[in-house]
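Please, structure for the following, as tokens.
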Amino acid sequence: MNLPESYIPILIQAGVAVAFVAVSLLGAHFLGPQQKKGNSVKNQSWECGVPVEGNARTPFSIKYFLTAVLFVLFDIEIVFFYPYAVNFREFGFEGFFAVLTFVAIFFVAFFYVWKRGALDWDK
């Protein structure tokens, strides 16, 4: 097998990564604590000493997931400002107007979400 010499460090790094994952998983399995099978009191879930109420499979309100998605959406927006902040002089007026357009689109999205009631926590 003839590989270019530039691939050898990449293959070594990939091999070390795969070996680390395998050793970690096998080590955790064989060296970690072994739990006994069954439904003993010791294996039950406890949260701050309070007895468990209900089933863990109870569905959450959609507001929780909507809030998480909106947070990620508007948080990722900030990531795209970093290249502009670092290179704003090189971008000139074209870059400035591109960023204004980007911000305007997100303001439209924000007002849409606001008008649809996604930010009303009481409902």
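The radius of gyration is 26 Å. The chain is about 60% helix and 0% strand.
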